[in-house]
Amino acid sequence: MKKERLFYLDFVRAIATISIVITHFNARYLYLNPPMPQKAVITTTVANIYIGGWGVSLFFIISGAALMYVYQEKCELKTFYKKRFLNIYPMFWIAYIAAFTYMFYVNKVAPGGEAPKINLIFSILGFDGLLAGNIPTFYILGEWFLGAIILMYLLFPIIRKGILEKPAVTWGIILVIYAWLILGYHYNFNVDKIIFIRMPEILFGMQFVKQNRKFDIREVVVATIILILNTICKPTWSSALQTSYVGIASFIVLVYLSYFLKNKLAVVLCGIVSKYSYAIFLVHHVIIAHMMATFDLNKITHLQSYELFISVFIVICIFAKILYEVHANIMQVVAKVIQKD
């Protein structure tokens, strides 16, 4: 039996999706020489953390919540992993092949041509973005988040069992690992990209759904105060730690707001963005890079930056829709072939 869609998850997912697009659009101004953050659209930070980290934190919380909502009662491993595989890889491979072909045609050289050919396996598996900062890869699209979310899916059945059967022990183990990563980690790999640093966010989302939380206004007030204080005080301690509690506090506030903002139009719009969120995630980076490269960002005004953002976002939506439909049609053909055999 198909479960009813939860509007608050669609609402937060839509906000997180748009925030990631804004992140990579604004990044083009932040990497100019000299940087021009004054031309960024909306903002580059939320409650003293980078807007990209904020959006990713919301995605991890949503992912934990959504998986727990669907699989709380039963999680048959073969069915679970098959569905995760089909939800991630075919669309990723289609988008990767299209982007690789386009970039090869435009640049007259294969992307990542200096990387050892054997490292193409990381692109096939969706881990090229996660590993790109440490080894040469053929990374084009998908970001490090894709590799991290794949690891989350691999671990989810174990985490689910722990949350359902021994929640205190599970939280204890995760928080010990988290504390070590915050306080004692010194290896040459970005700590923000390690899946265990995101586990408190994931577990919070799972616990939120498991408890079928009814909002206590006091929780919302506390969460709001945390966001305000972090914005005003601008603490300099661990950005990973700030991302965790700012993300969780933001989720609480956004879910609370979703109850007041829910109407037919909001349900439709958030549902559409949620439906195409993965396709948007896959295509947005390449489109932003190539569209913004055709403009002299040093000369455009702040107003023109907003006009450019709207244009870029429209193109992203068009290509996300195309990717989604191409993927759906290919999967239908594959399903028919399998059925015949």
Automatic annotation (TrEMBL):
InterPro entries for this protein: Acyl_transf_3_dom (IPR002656)
Gene Ontology biological process terms in this record: enterobacterial common antigen biosynthetic process
Coiled-coil ranges (or none): none
Localization (cell): Cell membrane
UniProt KW Nucleotide-binding keyword: no
GO cellular component term, pick one: plasma membrane
Keywords: Acyltransferase, Cell membrane, Membrane, Transferase, Transmembrane, Transmembrane helix
Name of the featured protein: Acyltransferase
Residues annotated as transmembrane: 7-27, 47-72, 84-105, 137-156, 168-187, 243-261, 273-293, 305-324
Residue ranges annotated for the Acyltransferase domain, each copy included: 8-319
Taxonomic lineage of the native organism: Bacteria, Bacillati, Bacillota, Clostridia, Lachnospirales
Membrane topology: Multi-pass membrane protein
GO molecular function ontology, one term from the record: O-acetyltransferase activity
Family: Belongs to the acyltransferase 3 family.
